[in-house]
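Hi there. Long-time user, first ticket. I'm pasting a complex I've been working with (about 638 residues overall). I'd like to know whether the download I got is complete or cut off, because the file seemed smaller than I expected. Thanks.
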Amino acid sequence: MKCRFKNLIFISVVFSSFTYIFFLRSWGGFGSSQTNGGKYSIIQLLQGKSIVSPKRLQCVKDKLELWPEEIRKIYNEDNIEPMGCSSERDWIIVINGTLQVQVTDITDIQCQATPIVRVNDFTEREEAKITGLVAGSKIPSDFFRLDCIGRKDSLTKTFRTYYSAIKKREKFQKNKRKASRKKWNVLMFGFDSVSRMQWMRLLPQTHHYWTKVLNATVLESYNIVGDGTPQALLPILTGKTEVELPEARRGHADAVQVDNHPWIWKQFSNDGYVTQWGEDGQSFGTFQFRMLGFKDPPTDYYLRPFERAVHKKFCLGSVPTHKQMTNWIDELWRVYKGEETPKFSFLFHSVYTHGYTKQLSIADEDMKKWLKHLKDDNILKNTFVILMADHGPRFLSLRAHIQGKYEERNPYFSIRIPDDFDKMYPNARATLQQNANRLTTPFDIHATFEDILNFDPFEVIDERKRGLSILKDIPLDRTCNKAGIEAHWCSCLSWKKLKITDPLVTKSAESVISLFNSHLVPFSKSCSKLKLGSVISALKLEHNSDVLKFKKSSDQHGRVADLSDEMKADDARIRVDFITLPNNGRYEATVKLNLINNSLSADMTQISRINRYGKQPHCIMDRVPELRPICYCIVQLN
Ligand SMILES: *[C@@H]1O[C@H](CO)[C@@H](O)[C@H](O)[C@H]1NC(C)=O
Ligand SMILES: *[C@@H]1O[C@H](CO)[C@@H](O)[C@H](O)[C@H]1NC(C)=O
Ligand SMILES: *[C@@H]1O[C@H](CO)[C@@H](O)[C@H](O)[C@H]1NC(C)=O
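Hi, the file is complete. Here it is re-exported in full:
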């Protein structure tokens, strides 16, 4: 494990001299008190290895801040609306397809169930009541209303609520033969409109547990390919954009229902998987609001009729919606326990984030607990788990800032490979981790699903394809164009070469060196002051003009871009590769250029030393390990 971890960091440094993210983490920044004990320090790992960089990362993204002023302001002004869940505990819960009583103060409970059955995407009906249900009775259908009576202190009490459950299907009863090939479960859970940064702001415990304890990978350079939920989910679920699929929009001639789209769950279903799909926001259903919806249920378990029937806001009785949804997933895993029936599940939650800024934060603790349960119940052993969002928040006030534009384009997207997969394919996790900083898209998720269905570690990926599996090596030189991202969605900074004689270049390198020297001041007796030797190359990184100009989609289908925004960039970046003396240190640094007053500011987290320093810093090595990359001891050892 340790060994693999080292490799992974090494790879990312060697091949991504354009990314500073790893430096940020392992270097901790000079000013920060955080140290990593030097154990996995990149700088150390680089000793003894030569730095060859055959390709460079083409897509460089702006570093997003967690709490910029404008976001904190919006956040502070928003309130959390009371959830309004009932304080009375549900009398009954459904576990593994049977009714179970979970209250002790009510006795002689008897219930009747009213099954809720789908007629089509816009109608459902109630079926004849089933009476005489008691604890231990089997559920009558996936969705039903339960009306119960019972006794409490010799008084008669009543209870009513709705259940989304899993009634086992005949076709899977027979399926007891073990598959010849290992089949991995897929569990994807999403929240509407949550950028990567917003997820970290609103679900900090979940994010921490997910990435730090469960070692899941967040795709930091994940980039949307269109505006809105369908534009995110169609590429993920079909590998295509809406315009590439048959016309399904209401009111358009020849429009058809979406059943014949090449849904990924069909491929899973054909391979013997039980499938589940649902979203809580039924009134604005992703495939029903502008589109005609499904003629037949698209998956074995389809939440829509239930959500339509219950008309809830945030809660169902005492259960908040996020828990109702994760319970429904848990129940699928319980009813189809074991490897005979592989499972594909995707649930997408909207009501907390649709129109609210921070309502989602109420789900943080529960989501973390749920992830812990997935681990404790061994679900992570055979299951790819994906936590995701479709796109970032699209509040107008946020869009008025460049960070808001980037957040909109960079939803949270994270994946964890199953423990058994990790054992079978020891490089998979490192590859995934490396891809975290490469340009990825919803099309890639579709390709990843196909890869999961038929994983071949030896497959050579075809870089010409629009969608590439994130379990394989995503090319470092991938561009928005190659990845199928239109210019106004592309968050990669555009860059051009600068002449090394450009005064701006020298000034940038000097600003970094003076920052170095300021850190060396307290150690001036031990370490030499540094000065500029020569500049090797320099680039200017600028905000992509189409992103600055993009205001919104000017049609309700998100197909026509309104490029009338007049946002001006107020900063740019200078990336400079230079050598200092007397240590012959080679550094690559990204310096911020303020375009309003033309000032430059260097930041220690965005600087990497890219050649070996060997024993140069021996005199402070143990005392101040974080200065190793810049300290050249006045007394040098032979
Ligand atoms: C669920 O119920 C079935 C019978 O309906 C039983 O065979 C199975 O073991 C139960 N699973 C769990 C996890 O309790
Ligand atoms: C996460 O990674 C650490 C370090 O490699 C390892 O010790 C730990 O067991 C991993 N956790 C899980 C749940 O796999
Ligand atoms: C330029 O503007 C930035 C941001 O307002 C400020 O932090 C910086 O001190 C200014 N620099 C100079 C030289 O005026």
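A couple of notes from our side: The first strand starts at residue 92 and ends at 95. The pocket of 2-acetamido-2-deoxy-beta-D-glucopyranose (ligand 3) is lined by residues 594, 597, 599 (CB under 6 Å).
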